[in-house]
Amino acid sequence: MISQISAARLKGHRFPRAIISYAVWAYHRFALSLRDVEDLLAERGIKVSYETIRAWVRKFGPQIARRIRSKRARPSDKWHLDEVVISIGGVKHWLWRAVDSNGDVLDILVQSRRNTRAAKRFIAGLVARWGRPRVIITDKLRSYGAALRKLGLEVDHRAHKGLNNRIEGSHRPTRKREKIQGRFKSARQAQRFLAVHDETANLFRPRRHKMTAAAYRQKRANAFARWNEVAATMAA
């Protein structure tokens, strides 16, 4: 992957964009700590501190995620919405997440409340980005229905916990990364990290069990090509 991107250095950075892109990809693609990524690069003869990698992830991760998201195909018209509690600095927060019927994450939003106002804010952002869906599936939290009424969205709202299994699995990688990082440090940091992490997962974690080996390899090759194309346009 490193050899597939221009070796040209970014202005103000000692390392070429290929190495920076690889570090950002490895950190978000796998359940690795910053020190783990430092060791991966060291094995390849690249001496860089984990603090530098942290700066790369923070600076270039959102850039890459935004550009990948801007080229995504329109999601399916059936959305699954859910919220899960996360602890930040000992304070309870709520991670709101939406996926489509294919399991692709549409958006996430970290908020301190789990009420109608929070649900309205989350749904409004989804609709502004992706348009109106045909069906929205949620758990039995009443705030969803109230938010949809306030927004005037005429969609088929199905509130049933048993119908929302599609989104439950999308929370597991978040829990794993939360543990590796020793919990998120702030709502802003959690939002920034998860937005990039989920976009990377959309690109590199297709539903492999439903694909032939050849189809999966082609999907993976397309994902690498897309990542490299976007990484080649990273701006200092």
UniProtKB/TrEMBL annotation:
<protein>
    <submittedName>
        <fullName>IS6 family transposase</fullName>
    </submittedName>
</protein>
<keyword id="KW-0233">DNA recombination</keyword>
<keyword id="KW-0815">Transposition</keyword>
<dbReference type="InterPro" id="IPR047930">
    <property type="entry name" value="Transpos_IS6"/>
</dbReference>
<keyword id="KW-0238">DNA-binding</keyword>
<dbReference type="InterPro" id="IPR032874">
    <property type="entry name" value="DDE_dom"/>
</dbReference>
<feature type="domain" description="DDE">
    <location>
        <begin position="77"/>
        <end position="205"/>
    </location>
</feature>
<dbReference type="InterPro" id="IPR052183">
    <property type="entry name" value="IS_Transposase"/>
</dbReference>
<dbReference type="Pfam" id="PF13610">
    <property type="entry name" value="DDE_Tnp_IS240"/>
</dbReference>
